[in-house]
Structure of Trophoblast glycoprotein:
Amino acid sequence: MAWPYVGLLCVLICLQSTQASTDVTDCPKTLDGKSTQEITDNTGCPIAFDGKCKCGLSRYPNSPHLPDAKKRYIVNCTNTGFTNASMLTCLPIETEVLIFTGNRIGPLPKNVLGNTKDYDDLEIMDLSNNGITFIPGKAFHKVFNVRTLILNHNDIEISERERPRVFYGFESLENLHLTNAFTESVNSSFYLLSLEDIFFESDLRLLVKLHLEQNEIYTIGRNASIFCQLPSLNHLYLGDNRLSDMDFRLDCMPGLTYVDLQRNNINRLSSEAISTIEQFSRQSNFTIELRKNPFICDCYIWSFVSWLKSTKVVLRDSDDYKCAEGISDTLIGKTLKNLDKNQLQCPTRPVHIEEKSSSTSAVATLSFILAFVTAILLAIVYYQRMKIRNHVMPYYEYVTRKIGYSGLASEEAPKVVAV
Ligand SMILES: *[C@@H]1O[C@H](CO)[C@@H](O)[C@H](O)[C@H]1NC(C)=O
Ligand SMILES: *[C@@H]1O[C@H](CO)[C@@H](O)[C@H](O)[C@H]1NC(C)=O
Ligand SMILES: *[C@@H]1O[C@H](CO)[C@@H](O)[C@H](O)[C@H]1NC(C)=O
Ligand SMILES: *[C@@H]1O[C@H](CO)[C@@H](O)[C@H](O)[C@H]1NC(C)=O
Ligand SMILES: *[C@@H]1O[C@H](CO)[C@@H](O)[C@H](O)[C@H]1NC(C)=O
Protein backbone atom coordinates (compact mmCIF):
# COMPACT_ATOMS: atom_id res chain seq x y z
CA MET A 1 0.00 0.00 0.00
CA ALA A 2 2.78 2.40 0.98
CA TRP A 3 5.01 1.51 -1.94
CA PRO A 4 3.49 3.79 -4.60
CA TYR A 5 3.65 6.61 -2.09
CA VAL A 6 7.34 6.00 -1.36
CA GLY A 7 8.04 5.65 -5.09
CA LEU A 8 6.37 8.97 -5.77
CA LEU A 9 8.41 10.59 -3.02
CA CYS A 10 11.54 9.14 -4.49
CA VAL A 11 10.73 10.63 -7.88
CA LEU A 12 10.06 13.93 -6.18
CA ILE A 13 13.36 13.86 -4.31
CA CYS A 14 15.25 12.95 -7.44
CA LEU A 15 13.56 15.74 -9.40
CA GLN A 16 14.25 18.19 -6.64
CA SER A 17 17.89 17.28 -6.31
CA THR A 18 18.57 17.38 -10.04
CA GLN A 19 16.95 20.81 -10.20
CA ALA A 20 18.84 22.06 -7.19
CA SER A 21 22.16 23.69 -7.82
CA THR A 22 24.96 23.08 -5.35
CA ASP A 23 23.18 25.43 -2.97
CA VAL A 24 20.71 23.03 -1.47
CA THR A 25 18.47 24.90 0.88
CA ASP A 26 16.15 22.44 2.52
CA CYS A 27 14.86 18.92 2.82
CA PRO A 28 12.48 17.98 -0.04
CA LYS A 29 8.76 18.22 0.64
CA THR A 30 5.92 15.83 -0.10
CA LEU A 31 3.07 16.77 -2.44
CA ASP A 32 0.99 18.04 0.45
CA GLY A 33 3.83 20.29 1.57
CA LYS A 34 5.19 18.27 4.49
CA SER A 35 8.94 17.83 4.90
CA THR A 36 10.21 14.32 4.13
CA GLN A 37 12.49 14.69 7.12
CA GLU A 38 9.89 12.95 9.30
CA ILE A 39 9.38 10.03 6.92
CA THR A 40 11.77 7.27 7.85
CA ASP A 41 12.51 3.84 6.42
CA ASN A 42 13.61 0.66 8.20
CA THR A 43 17.10 2.08 8.87
CA GLY A 44 15.51 4.68 11.13
CA CYS A 45 16.75 7.41 8.81
CA PRO A 46 14.70 9.81 6.67
CA ILE A 47 14.12 8.39 3.18
CA ALA A 48 16.51 10.93 1.64
CA PHE A 49 19.33 8.80 3.06
CA ASP A 50 18.46 6.06 0.55
CA GLY A 51 18.53 3.35 3.20
CA LYS A 52 22.32 3.56 3.30
CA CYS A 53 22.79 4.95 6.81
CA LYS A 54 21.78 4.06 10.34
CA CYS A 55 19.92 6.43 12.60
CA GLY A 56 19.03 5.93 16.23
CA LEU A 57 20.22 5.71 19.81
CA SER A 58 23.44 3.89 20.42
CA ARG A 59 26.56 4.08 22.56
CA TYR A 60 29.12 6.68 21.62
CA PRO A 61 32.05 6.29 21.46
CA ASN A 62 31.45 2.72 20.42
CA SER A 63 34.46 1.14 22.08
CA PRO A 64 34.90 -1.93 24.29
CA HIS A 65 37.18 0.20 26.47
CA LEU A 66 34.34 2.56 27.28
CA PRO A 67 31.43 0.29 28.22
CA ASP A 68 29.78 3.11 30.18
CA ALA A 69 29.62 5.52 27.23
CA LYS A 70 26.33 7.38 27.09
CA LYS A 71 23.71 6.44 24.52
CA ARG A 72 23.25 9.17 21.97
CA TYR A 73 21.22 9.73 18.86
CA ILE A 74 23.65 8.84 16.07
CA VAL A 75 23.30 9.22 12.34
CA ASN A 76 25.96 6.95 10.87
CA CYS A 77 26.73 7.09 7.15
CA THR A 78 30.03 5.22 6.91
CA ASN A 79 31.41 4.24 3.47
CA THR A 80 28.06 4.98 1.88
CA GLY A 81 29.57 6.36 -1.33
CA PHE A 82 27.31 9.37 -1.62
CA THR A 83 28.50 11.86 -4.23
CA ASN A 84 26.80 14.86 -2.67
CA ALA A 85 25.63 15.90 0.76
CA SER A 86 22.09 16.95 -0.11
CA MET A 87 20.49 14.34 2.18
CA LEU A 88 22.02 16.12 5.17
CA THR A 89 19.35 18.80 4.83
CA CYS A 90 17.00 16.08 6.09
CA LEU A 91 19.15 15.22 9.12
CA PRO A 92 16.88 14.21 12.02
CA ILE A 93 16.47 17.14 14.36
CA GLU A 94 17.38 15.09 17.44
CA THR A 95 20.81 14.09 16.05
CA GLU A 96 23.61 14.33 18.61
CA VAL A 97 26.39 12.67 16.65
CA LEU A 98 26.72 12.85 12.87
CA ILE A 99 29.15 10.38 11.31
CA PHE A 100 29.38 11.02 7.59
CA THR A 101 32.55 9.46 6.27
CA GLY A 102 33.84 7.60 3.24
CA ASN A 103 31.85 9.50 0.62
CA ARG A 104 32.96 11.44 -2.47
CA ILE A 105 31.49 14.87 -2.02
CA GLY A 106 33.81 17.41 -3.66
CA PRO A 107 32.85 20.98 -2.80
CA LEU A 108 30.39 21.35 0.05
CA PRO A 109 27.20 23.30 -0.70
CA LYS A 110 26.09 26.32 1.25
CA ASN A 111 23.85 25.42 4.17
CA VAL A 112 24.87 21.79 4.42
CA LEU A 113 22.26 21.20 7.13
CA GLY A 114 19.64 23.44 5.54
CA ASN A 115 18.87 26.81 6.96
CA THR A 116 15.52 26.47 8.63
CA LYS A 117 16.07 24.16 11.58
CA ASP A 118 18.21 24.49 14.68
CA TYR A 119 20.30 21.46 15.62
CA ASP A 120 20.47 22.20 19.32
CA ASP A 121 21.61 18.70 20.29
CA LEU A 122 24.26 18.22 17.64
CA GLU A 123 27.60 17.97 19.41
CA ILE A 124 29.89 15.94 17.19
CA MET A 125 30.31 16.09 13.42
CA ASP A 126 32.70 13.66 11.80
CA LEU A 127 33.15 14.52 8.11
CA SER A 128 36.40 12.61 7.56
CA ASN A 129 37.49 11.04 4.33
CA ASN A 130 34.85 12.53 2.07
CA GLY A 131 37.04 14.02 -0.67
CA ILE A 132 35.79 17.44 0.37
CA THR A 133 37.56 20.00 -1.84
CA PHE A 134 36.03 23.25 -0.76
CA ILE A 135 34.06 24.64 2.15
CA PRO A 136 32.19 27.84 1.35
CA GLY A 137 31.77 30.56 3.92
CA LYS A 138 28.21 29.67 4.81
CA ALA A 139 28.45 25.90 4.73
CA PHE A 140 27.42 25.45 8.32
CA HIS A 141 24.51 27.21 9.89
CA LYS A 142 22.73 26.29 13.05
CA VAL A 143 25.59 24.40 14.61
CA PHE A 144 25.80 26.45 17.78
CA ASN A 145 26.42 23.49 20.04
CA VAL A 146 28.90 21.44 18.05
CA ARG A 147 31.93 20.77 20.26
CA THR A 148 33.90 18.51 17.95
CA LEU A 149 34.37 18.88 14.21
CA ILE A 150 36.44 16.28 12.38
CA LEU A 151 37.57 16.99 8.82
CA ASN A 152 40.50 14.57 8.61
CA HIS A 153 41.66 13.11 5.29
CA ASN A 154 40.02 15.48 2.86
CA ASP A 155 41.37 17.58 -0.04
CA ILE A 156 40.30 20.99 1.14
CA GLU A 157 41.62 23.92 -0.78
CA ILE A 158 41.70 27.17 1.12
CA SER A 159 43.55 29.64 -1.04
CA GLU A 160 42.62 33.03 -2.38
CA ARG A 161 39.34 31.75 -3.79
CA GLU A 162 37.36 33.04 -0.90
CA ARG A 163 38.52 34.55 2.34
CA PRO A 164 36.23 32.21 4.07
CA ARG A 165 34.51 32.09 7.36
CA VAL A 166 34.80 28.34 7.10
CA PHE A 167 34.20 27.63 10.74
CA TYR A 168 31.87 30.51 11.36
CA GLY A 169 28.81 29.38 13.24
CA PHE A 170 30.70 26.84 15.33
CA GLU A 171 30.39 29.04 18.35
CA SER A 172 31.05 26.30 20.86
CA LEU A 173 33.77 24.45 19.00
CA GLU A 174 36.34 22.92 21.32
CA ASN A 175 38.03 20.26 19.18
CA LEU A 176 38.98 20.82 15.58
CA HIS A 177 40.56 17.93 13.69
CA LEU A 178 42.34 18.89 10.48
CA THR A 179 44.70 15.95 10.11
CA ASN A 180 45.67 15.55 6.47
CA ALA A 181 42.74 17.78 5.63
CA PHE A 182 44.24 19.98 2.94
CA THR A 183 44.97 19.45 -0.71
CA GLU A 184 48.56 18.68 -1.56
CA SER A 185 48.38 20.73 -4.75
CA VAL A 186 48.70 23.96 -2.80
CA ASN A 187 51.95 24.86 -1.07
CA SER A 188 51.36 24.74 2.68
CA SER A 189 52.76 28.23 3.16
CA PHE A 190 49.78 29.58 1.26
CA TYR A 191 47.15 27.71 3.14
CA LEU A 192 48.71 28.55 6.44
CA LEU A 193 48.34 32.21 5.64
CA SER A 194 44.75 31.49 4.70
CA LEU A 195 44.27 29.45 7.83
CA GLU A 196 45.27 32.41 9.88
CA ASP A 197 42.60 34.48 8.16
CA ILE A 198 40.13 31.72 8.77
CA PHE A 199 40.89 31.62 12.46
CA PHE A 200 40.58 35.38 12.51
CA GLU A 201 37.20 35.37 10.72
CA SER A 202 35.72 32.33 12.39
CA ASP A 203 35.78 33.38 16.01
CA LEU A 204 36.96 30.16 17.64
CA ARG A 205 37.41 31.58 21.09
CA LEU A 206 36.59 28.33 22.85
CA LEU A 207 38.82 26.03 20.82
CA VAL A 208 40.85 23.79 23.11
CA LYS A 209 42.41 21.22 20.80
CA LEU A 210 43.65 21.77 17.27
CA HIS A 211 44.92 18.90 15.14
CA LEU A 212 47.04 19.81 12.11
CA GLU A 213 49.04 16.62 11.65
CA GLN A 214 50.15 15.26 8.26
CA ASN A 215 49.72 18.50 6.36
CA GLU A 216 53.20 18.91 4.83
CA ILE A 217 53.64 22.12 6.79
CA TYR A 218 57.30 23.08 6.58
CA THR A 219 57.12 26.52 8.11
CA ILE A 220 54.56 28.50 10.02
CA GLY A 221 55.28 31.25 7.56
CA ARG A 222 55.46 34.96 7.90
CA ASN A 223 53.05 35.30 10.74
CA ALA A 224 54.26 33.89 14.01
CA SER A 225 50.95 34.97 15.55
CA ILE A 226 48.96 32.44 13.56
CA PHE A 227 47.49 30.70 16.61
CA CYS A 228 46.88 33.88 18.58
CA GLN A 229 43.27 33.98 17.42
CA LEU A 230 42.71 30.88 19.54
CA PRO A 231 43.09 32.20 23.07
CA SER A 232 41.72 29.08 24.79
CA LEU A 233 43.97 26.66 22.96
CA ASN A 234 45.30 23.95 25.20
CA HIS A 235 46.67 21.23 22.91
CA LEU A 236 48.29 21.90 19.56
CA TYR A 237 49.10 18.89 17.38
CA LEU A 238 51.63 19.48 14.60
CA GLY A 239 53.14 16.01 14.33
CA ASP A 240 54.09 14.43 10.99
CA ASN A 241 54.78 17.69 9.25
CA ARG A 242 58.08 19.04 7.93
CA LEU A 243 58.77 21.82 10.39
CA SER A 244 62.44 22.51 11.04
CA ASP A 245 61.92 24.61 14.16
CA MET A 246 59.21 25.91 16.46
CA ASP A 247 58.74 29.35 14.97
CA PHE A 248 55.42 30.61 16.32
CA ARG A 249 54.38 32.60 19.36
CA LEU A 250 53.22 30.89 22.52
CA ASP A 251 52.67 33.81 24.85
CA CYS A 252 49.26 34.70 23.37
CA MET A 253 47.80 31.33 24.35
CA PRO A 254 47.91 31.39 28.13
CA GLY A 255 46.21 28.01 28.47
CA LEU A 256 48.54 26.12 26.16
CA THR A 257 49.94 23.05 27.87
CA TYR A 258 50.99 20.75 25.04
CA VAL A 259 52.63 21.12 21.65
CA ASP A 260 53.19 18.01 19.57
CA LEU A 261 56.07 18.23 17.10
CA GLN A 262 56.83 14.53 16.63
CA ARG A 263 58.16 13.28 13.32
CA ASN A 264 58.97 16.65 11.83
CA ASN A 265 62.23 17.80 10.29
CA ILE A 266 63.90 19.35 13.33
CA ASN A 267 67.71 18.97 13.42
CA ARG A 268 67.83 20.94 16.67
CA LEU A 269 65.68 23.67 18.19
CA SER A 270 67.05 27.14 17.59
CA SER A 271 68.06 29.32 20.51
CA GLU A 272 65.07 31.58 19.70
CA ALA A 273 62.70 28.64 20.02
CA ILE A 274 64.34 27.58 23.27
CA SER A 275 64.00 31.01 24.81
CA THR A 276 60.37 31.27 23.63
CA ILE A 277 59.63 27.97 25.34
CA GLU A 278 61.54 28.86 28.51
CA GLN A 279 59.80 32.20 28.89
CA PHE A 280 56.43 30.67 28.26
CA SER A 281 56.88 27.75 30.62
CA ARG A 282 57.43 30.13 33.49
CA GLN A 283 53.77 31.09 33.35
CA SER A 284 52.28 27.67 32.67
CA ASN A 285 53.03 23.98 32.89
CA PHE A 286 54.17 23.18 29.42
CA THR A 287 54.91 19.92 27.67
CA ILE A 288 56.50 19.52 24.29
CA GLU A 289 56.91 16.32 22.28
CA LEU A 290 59.85 16.03 19.86
CA ARG A 291 60.18 12.30 19.27
CA LYS A 292 61.46 10.96 15.93
CA ASN A 293 62.94 14.16 14.64
CA PRO A 294 66.18 13.84 12.64
CA PHE A 295 68.51 15.39 15.20
CA ILE A 296 72.02 16.04 13.88
CA CYS A 297 74.63 15.49 16.56
CA ASP A 298 77.47 17.85 15.74
CA CYS A 299 78.91 20.74 17.72
CA TYR A 300 75.97 23.01 16.82
CA ILE A 301 73.49 20.89 18.76
CA TRP A 302 75.21 21.35 22.11
CA SER A 303 73.13 24.31 23.34
CA PHE A 304 69.96 22.32 22.58
CA VAL A 305 71.31 19.22 24.31
CA SER A 306 72.40 21.10 27.40
CA TRP A 307 68.97 22.71 27.52
CA LEU A 308 67.34 19.26 27.29
CA LYS A 309 69.39 18.14 30.26
CA SER A 310 68.63 21.10 32.47
CA THR A 311 65.20 22.49 31.62
CA LYS A 312 62.12 22.22 33.81
CA VAL A 313 59.90 22.13 30.72
CA VAL A 314 58.43 18.67 30.31
CA LEU A 315 59.87 17.02 27.21
CA ARG A 316 57.68 14.00 26.67
CA ASP A 317 59.55 10.77 25.90
CA SER A 318 62.83 12.67 25.90
CA ASP A 319 64.72 9.40 26.41
CA ASP A 320 63.66 8.63 22.85
CA TYR A 321 65.27 11.71 21.29
CA LYS A 322 68.16 10.23 19.31
CA CYS A 323 70.82 11.29 16.84
CA ALA A 324 69.75 10.58 13.26
CA GLU A 325 73.09 11.81 11.97
CA GLY A 326 76.29 12.73 13.68
CA ILE A 327 79.92 13.53 13.51
CA SER A 328 81.14 10.86 13.71
CA ASP A 329 78.78 8.10 12.57
CA THR A 330 79.22 6.33 15.91
CA LEU A 331 76.81 8.87 17.41
CA ILE A 332 73.92 7.72 15.22
CA GLY A 333 71.21 6.25 17.42
CA LYS A 334 72.66 7.70 20.63
CA THR A 335 70.25 9.33 23.07
CA LEU A 336 70.62 13.11 23.06
CA LYS A 337 70.39 13.40 26.82
CA ASN A 338 73.41 11.13 27.28
CA LEU A 339 75.72 13.14 25.04
CA ASP A 340 78.72 15.03 26.40
CA LYS A 341 80.06 18.20 24.91
CA ASN A 342 83.40 16.61 24.00
CA GLN A 343 81.65 13.95 21.90
CA LEU A 344 80.23 16.59 19.60
CA GLN A 345 82.56 17.64 16.81
CA CYS A 346 82.22 20.33 14.23
CA PRO A 347 82.11 19.40 10.55
CA THR A 348 85.77 19.12 9.40
CA ARG A 349 85.25 21.31 6.38
CA PRO A 350 82.86 23.98 7.60
CA VAL A 351 80.46 25.04 4.93
CA HIS A 352 81.48 28.70 4.76
CA ILE A 353 85.07 27.85 3.77
CA GLU A 354 83.82 25.64 0.96
CA GLU A 355 81.58 28.44 -0.21
CA LYS A 356 84.48 30.87 -0.16
CA SER A 357 86.81 28.59 -2.11
CA SER A 358 84.13 27.76 -4.63
CA SER A 359 83.42 31.46 -5.13
CA THR A 360 87.12 32.24 -5.64
CA SER A 361 87.36 29.45 -8.19
CA ALA A 362 84.26 30.83 -9.92
CA VAL A 363 85.92 34.25 -10.14
CA ALA A 364 89.10 32.65 -11.57
CA THR A 365 87.09 30.74 -14.19
CA LEU A 366 85.19 33.87 -15.17
CA SER A 367 88.37 35.95 -15.53
CA PHE A 368 89.93 33.23 -17.66
CA ILE A 369 86.89 33.11 -19.97
CA LEU A 370 86.87 36.88 -20.23
CA ALA A 371 90.57 37.00 -21.15
CA PHE A 372 90.10 34.18 -23.67
CA VAL A 373 87.15 35.85 -25.39
CA THR A 374 88.99 39.15 -25.52
CA ALA A 375 92.02 37.47 -27.08
CA ILE A 376 89.88 35.77 -29.75
CA LEU A 377 88.10 39.01 -30.56
CA LEU A 378 91.39 40.80 -30.95
CA ALA A 379 92.73 37.99 -33.12
CA ILE A 380 89.67 38.21 -35.36
CA VAL A 381 90.01 41.93 -35.63
CA TYR A 382 93.70 41.48 -36.48
CA TYR A 383 93.20 38.83 -39.19
CA GLN A 384 90.15 40.49 -40.71
CA ARG A 385 91.69 43.91 -40.61
CA MET A 386 91.53 44.32 -44.39
CA LYS A 387 87.84 43.45 -44.52
CA ILE A 388 87.11 45.63 -41.57
CA ARG A 389 88.98 48.45 -43.15
CA ASN A 390 86.93 48.09 -46.33
CA HIS A 391 83.61 47.80 -44.54
CA VAL A 392 83.99 50.25 -41.77
CA MET A 393 86.44 52.59 -43.35
CA PRO A 394 85.01 55.72 -41.82
CA TYR A 395 85.29 54.29 -38.32
CA TYR A 396 88.60 52.49 -38.76
CA GLU A 397 90.78 55.24 -37.53
CA TYR A 398 88.60 55.76 -34.53
CA VAL A 399 88.55 52.06 -33.62
CA THR A 400 92.28 51.60 -33.77
CA ARG A 401 92.83 54.69 -31.76
CA LYS A 402 90.30 53.60 -29.25
CA ILE A 403 92.05 50.24 -28.79
CA GLY A 404 95.31 52.03 -28.43
CA TYR A 405 93.90 54.42 -25.86
CA SER A 406 92.11 51.88 -23.79
CA GLY A 407 95.36 50.01 -23.33
CA LEU A 408 93.88 46.62 -24.15
CA ALA A 409 96.50 44.16 -25.42
CA SER A 410 99.15 46.81 -25.45
CA GLU A 411 101.60 44.77 -27.60
CA GLU A 412 98.97 44.36 -30.29
CA ALA A 413 97.73 47.89 -30.42
CA PRO A 414 100.87 49.27 -32.07
CA LYS A 415 100.67 46.55 -34.75
CA VAL A 416 97.09 47.51 -35.57
CA VAL A 417 97.97 51.12 -35.60
CA ALA A 418 100.97 50.36 -37.79
CA VAL A 419 98.78 48.89 -40.56
C1 LIG B 1 23.07 13.64 -5.29
O1 LIG B 1 23.41 12.27 -5.38
C2 LIG B 1 22.32 11.44 -5.78
C3 LIG B 1 22.79 10.01 -5.75
O2 LIG B 1 23.35 9.72 -4.51
C4 LIG B 1 21.84 11.84 -7.16
O3 LIG B 1 20.72 11.07 -7.52
C5 LIG B 1 21.47 13.31 -7.17
O4 LIG B 1 21.17 13.74 -8.44
C6 LIG B 1 22.60 14.16 -6.63
N1 LIG B 1 22.17 15.55 -6.48
C7 LIG B 1 22.89 16.58 -6.90
C8 LIG B 1 22.33 17.92 -6.62
O5 LIG B 1 23.94 16.44 -7.50
C1 LIG C 1 29.15 3.43 12.05
O1 LIG C 1 28.97 2.44 11.05
C2 LIG C 1 30.13 1.71 10.75
C3 LIG C 1 29.84 0.77 9.58
O2 LIG C 1 28.51 0.54 9.42
C4 LIG C 1 30.58 0.95 11.99
O3 LIG C 1 31.76 0.22 11.72
C5 LIG C 1 30.84 1.94 13.10
O4 LIG C 1 31.18 1.27 14.31
C6 LIG C 1 29.62 2.80 13.34
N1 LIG C 1 29.96 3.84 14.31
C7 LIG C 1 29.28 4.03 15.44
C8 LIG C 1 29.80 5.07 16.35
O5 LIG C 1 28.31 3.38 15.74
C1 LIG D 1 56.64 26.29 -1.24
O1 LIG D 1 57.00 27.64 -1.45
C2 LIG D 1 58.24 28.02 -0.85
C3 LIG D 1 58.46 29.49 -1.07
O2 LIG D 1 57.48 30.09 -1.83
C4 LIG D 1 59.36 27.18 -1.45
O3 LIG D 1 60.58 27.52 -0.82
C5 LIG D 1 59.06 25.70 -1.23
O4 LIG D 1 60.05 24.92 -1.85
C6 LIG D 1 57.69 25.35 -1.80
N1 LIG D 1 57.41 23.96 -1.44
C7 LIG D 1 56.84 23.11 -2.29
C8 LIG D 1 56.64 21.73 -1.77
O5 LIG D 1 56.50 23.43 -3.40
C1 LIG E 1 49.37 38.18 11.66
O1 LIG E 1 48.14 37.80 12.21
C2 LIG E 1 47.51 38.79 13.01
C3 LIG E 1 46.26 38.21 13.54
O2 LIG E 1 46.32 36.83 13.58
C4 LIG E 1 47.22 40.00 12.18
O3 LIG E 1 46.66 41.01 12.99
C5 LIG E 1 48.52 40.51 11.55
O4 LIG E 1 48.24 41.58 10.67
C6 LIG E 1 49.20 39.38 10.77
N1 LIG E 1 50.49 39.83 10.28
C7 LIG E 1 50.97 39.55 9.05
C8 LIG E 1 52.34 40.06 8.74
O5 LIG E 1 50.32 38.92 8.25
C1 LIG F 1 52.03 23.13 37.42
O1 LIG F 1 51.77 21.85 37.90
C2 LIG F 1 52.01 21.68 39.29
C3 LIG F 1 51.75 20.24 39.66
O2 LIG F 1 51.61 19.46 38.55
C4 LIG F 1 51.12 22.64 40.08
O3 LIG F 1 51.39 22.53 41.45
C5 LIG F 1 51.38 24.07 39.62
O4 LIG F 1 50.47 24.94 40.26
C6 LIG F 1 51.19 24.18 38.11
N1 LIG F 1 51.57 25.53 37.68
C7 LIG F 1 50.87 26.26 36.83
C8 LIG F 1 51.38 27.62 36.50
O5 LIG F 1 49.81 25.85 36.33
Q: What stands out?
A: The longest helix spans residues 351-383.
